[in-house]
Amino acid sequence: MVTGWRDRITRLVEALRRWSEQPRGQRIAGWSTRRRWMVLVLLPTLLVCCGGTVVAVPVAWVWRLTAEASRGAVSPDVAASQYLQALSYGEEEGLITVLDDEREDELLTDWRVYREAMTRSEASRLSFGTLTVGSVQGGRAAVTVDVTAVWWSSSGGALSRRSTPLTWRFETRDDDGKWQVVSVEAPAWCGGYVARCAGGTAPSVSSSPSPSASPSDDLLGNPRSMLRCGPNDPFREWHSCPSTSAPVPSPS
Q1: Which CATH number do you get for residue 176?
Q2: Residues 214-251: pLDDT tens digits?
Q3: How far apart are CA 237 and CA 221, in angstroms?
Q4: Which terminus of the chain, N or C, has less C-beta within 10 A?
């Protein structure tokens, strides 16, 4: 049984060697992070458990491929696209690889907050077209793209509605041929894509409370003003009303 496992692992190693000879940008493009780590991190464990001459496969080579799988995209627009795709489908495993190593925690936290707001408003997907890449300066490049939020009908039928396209801006950097997202300037979900989020109000430029409406002089629109000692109390002269409740002056 051990011999059978050794043969399988040997074939797997040969396949990985051939795969590693492919252009760097094509090696892992279609792999999820989970699959990458299963193959490239758990493989040494299998080799050690099985023993024998197969263990002679260079462990450093395996770890080099693992490190390569865990960082960056082939271009700035691919990094931004991967970020948006992960946000659209709620898949973190496709996101981690394109986040800047030094700011990963912060970027991931912001991503989760945004995704939670999308989920609360029951958005189905994010839709976007061509991504525009700015000039590369100092190993950095800006990426802009117009993104539309999409809601599908709950019955699974035709498209329900789409939001107005809003512009996103990504700052990316080159890390030895691999591009990572350093910062994201995204339109507010609450107050941007949706007017109001469930359980809260949409953020606004001013945090000052809105002024309360003054009592209306229209008796039909504001009948409470005709109550006892109200501004339009018709029997005010027979009621003992405090001086602070002065009647509404009659128009001259």
Answers
A1: 3.10.450.50
A2: 444 444 445 556 666 766 666 656 566 666 545 555 44
A3: 24
A4: C
